[in-house]
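New to this. Please check both lines:
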Amino acid sequence: MIPKRKLGSQGLEVSAIGLGCMGMSQSYGPADEQQSIAVLHRAIAEGCTFLDTAEVYGPFTNEELLGRALKGKRHQVTIATKFGFHIEGGKISGTNSKPAHISAVVEASLKRLQTDHIDLLYQHRVDKTVPVEDVAGTVGELVTAGKVRFFGLSEAGAKTIRRAHKVHPVSALQSEYSLWERNLEAEIIPALKELGIGLVPFSPLGRGFLTGTAQRAESYAEGDFRRGDPRFQGANFDANMAAAKLVQDLSARKGVKPGQLALAWLLAKGDFIVPIPGTKREGYLLENIAAASIKLEPGEFAALNGALAPGSIAGPRYGEMHMSLVDR
């Protein structure tokens, strides 16, 4: 079974490796509901019980999937979901973290998830039109009402995290972080350590580059997120595949999969870190879970730290529109 870790100082304990569920709702190619439900049930059986979703995944359909899959199993899992976008007619048109909207989203998410409480509620992206103090206060009211247990932020900057934390304790920050993407190391991680806040890295496997499965952008179907990812395009792709080979070589010498090595590195960076690799296949799920038992020697850890140093990856991690939503 996977060991447990604590996120923040408010009592939230989760499996040391979680499961990102976004890809089960077609963000990374066609989805198969029965296959996804089988993966969710296997994850629970293996002790991987920290499940990550959001209203925008689908939109809405990912929460509905979890609601169906978790019948009779809700008490075995920790559910994290997110608010923060304006969604109309199935389309996302900007951010919305107005207090009334947050409350409405939570009520809708509870219905879709078929539960009476959300374990961890994140603001998905910082809304520059709404003071984060108002956001934290609103989530605090939901905690008092028993509809939410813990508060989190996603892709928030250090100043925003500090402001929110003063109003209501932030238990976790979800943000992209991996051997592949180390933008948090200069300012964000020091702030999290100072404030006693957990880190939940998404895309901990570098969107496939760290597992050796990445393909050029044009190889992916229309609607697949990677088709528009700058790091999968042209010369960026060639440079990034060469960088990722360093991890593949190190993993071969250790006798583990490259993705497992990448997850083991994250876990070794601190016991406040809980990665949430996403998959919709049982085989990959089991590979990811096994990373929790891999121990890195000091020399191996140092080699990985140096192999993909901050700033060594070609291309921005998002296109211009998505980068504008990152609070840095």
Q: What stands out?
A: The longest helix spans residues 234-254. The domain at 4-205+259-296 is CATH 3.20.20.100 (TIM Barrel). The radius of gyration is 19 Å.
